[in-house]
Amino acid sequence: MSTAAQPETVPALRLAHISKIFGGVKALNDVSFELGRGEVHCLAGENGCGKSTLIKIITGVYTPEPGAEMDYFGQRLTSVTPNQARALGIAVIWQDLALFSEMTVAENIAFDTLAGGRPRLVNYQKIHTMARAALARLGVTLDLDARLNTLPISQRQIVAIARALVSEARIIFMDEPTASLTQAETDRLLDVVRTLSAAGVAVVFVSHRLAEVLEIASRVTVLRDGKLVGVYDTEGMTQSRLTELMTGKTFDKVVSAQDRSADPPVLEVSHLSRAGDYHDINLVIRAGEVVGLTGLIGAGRTELGHTLFGMTRPDSGTIKLNGQPLALRSNRDAIAAGIGYVSEDRLALGLIQPQSIADNMVMAVLARISGSDGLISTRMKTDTVNHGISSLAIKLGQPADAVSTLSGGNQQRVVLAKWLATQPRLLILDSPTVGVDVGARDGIYKIVRRLAGQGLAILMISDEVSEVYFNTDRILRMAGGRIVAEIDPRRISLEQLEEAVYA
Amino acid sequence: MSALYTRLDRALGAEVIGLIGFLLLVLVGFSLATPQFFTVANFDSMAFQLPELGILTLAMLMPIISGGFNLAIVYIANLAGLTLAWTLIQFGGTEAGAGAFLLGSVLAIGVGALAGAMMGLVIAYIGAHPILVSLSMMIFLRGLGEFLTRGGDISGFPPFLSSIGHGYILGIPVPLIIFLAVALLWHVLLTRTRHGFSVYMAGSNIRAAEYSGIHTRRNLTLIYTLSGALCAVAGIVMLTRFNSVRVGHGEALLLVTVLACFLGGVDPMGGFGRVVPVVLALIILQVLSSGLNLLGANQHLSTAVWGLFLVGVMILRWVAARFPMRL
Q: Which of A332, A348, A352 shows the shortest C-beta gap to B215?
């Protein structure tokens, strides 16, 4: 397959009239897409808008409906197979990375040259040379003999990119690459992306995090409900405008903070310390108050949340709930005392994905839905589930469906319903909108506000500064395990706050 | 037809309907193949054979749903049988009364529960893998049992035990009544109690269950304790049926219990599995075995047919998942 002797002005990819129908539903409807050589491009849209379908058509996983025009580096193809797409230099790094966690960095990077073909002996020298060269192109050094599962996610991502480079990728699609990265790691990844771009490798970014999209990409293609909304220059584009384009709705973002200092305190933490995690934490959350806890990952936010939820024990200091001192021996004690905890890891810790929506909702209130005979009452269970579904407006098929069938936003509502069933007085929300569509986030924020309005004390932990800025009454900034500042969102601009956190 | 299917599906689940269909098929098949099959005598003998395997299978079920395994079931049953035998002999062997039998049974169940609890504690609090833990327990109990019995049979029990092992109440074999009672109890335990609920949740994702306030360690300990107690019940039934105890008796049943669980739709990865389809699967296995036996087939051949049958069921399940029935 020769792609030689093409002028550099020919775009890397040019697609037009791309449609795809699944069982009568148009997943893509006459979409076009263009990608320049070495361009950093963003593909934006909510879940189900057709982004993944488009990527799968480009990479030959799906065949588009007839009438599609697809030019790869100026070469018109009527159809591609996954192997052809790979040979053309197209690589996709999905969110799960598809790496081998038991193998070393070098083996992972050189994997595609190792796999397939006739059996032959592995030349470790060659593998090391290839891996080192690929990492050098990215301007990164990693221990080539480290097992992948010993590396943080951010470094695994670098390995995935290096692996794509070894197979001479000229276009790399990255699916939500920054979803689990800290700000510093994200910055480093963006640097790598710039290096790739300068070397002529085009990168297509799929991300929910609009701030970094606008920072890194030169153009953004927006899809909504399988249709092309438009292609826009990121120059002069704002996050709120992009959100509008993606969702077709407008969201008025205003600071919603109120002074709650007259309300009775629900949670009082004083001089709480735990070696290696956090130090001398003092904080108060009042009834009806939403307090934001922000700072970089590793600042001790989640660790503090775990202690408040009884999962870890502090070395010293006191925690009081409604004036009563708490000595939590487990999270069961915390739940009994009226504390709920929405984990940042909804997939692994927040919900039991294969089990039913109904079972997930009642998991924390088994004693409450049991009758006097000690057996779980079907009626009480159904009542609890129905109440959760209606009060949080969860969109679902059947309560007996697996919770994994729901969208991110609805899954998060199930988590909230689970904790609300325990009738908590304090709710800890750890990164409550991770993996939730931009349009669905607003719904979560509204719920949080409504719960606070009912007198709940809420601690919102997040590394998305704009999230705490617009949706809390007070912001505590953590760094190095300490609370270093208390901020009133009404007295500071979002930019100032971002600078304070990320500086 | 379609509405009826939907109603049945909602009440029983597709799994159960499929198994009932298959059961009817083998019943009709064997009835046509041999006149001896559809007889009172044959059904009577099946009803006496099923319970041992059945109770042991239920003892395997809960550990598998929890994502684990209990390889020690047969030897726990043997050791519980020894406990009962020892008690009976202390009270005069063939002269022992019903009180000695009751006391021995309670002690046997206690020994079974204790063996299970030991495994459960190690699995729950040390985090060791259930296969390794139960394998160690199995080897320990086998060695212990062979040491105590010098590898021989223990017999010489009071004659009234045969009214349990071979008797009837209202025309129903007593072992079958015990099995059905245990199955009902286990069904209620799994579907209606907090413990049962927690078994499924922790079996799917133990960390997420812990985060939701489920006491997963206590839950695991209880699972293996109950499993051990149930093995003891199987051991008691075995003693009354054979009027003797030998360590290693029923050894071949271990893998068949696993087969029956998976045939009954229990998820090998944990989190899913129900009593009713497992009981149906047991009945199918029994019918296959008895039917083939009546046809003059060798006992070993019927074991081979069981194996083939499980592979066939897996293929059928794959087909059913790929091409859903539209009724």
A: A332
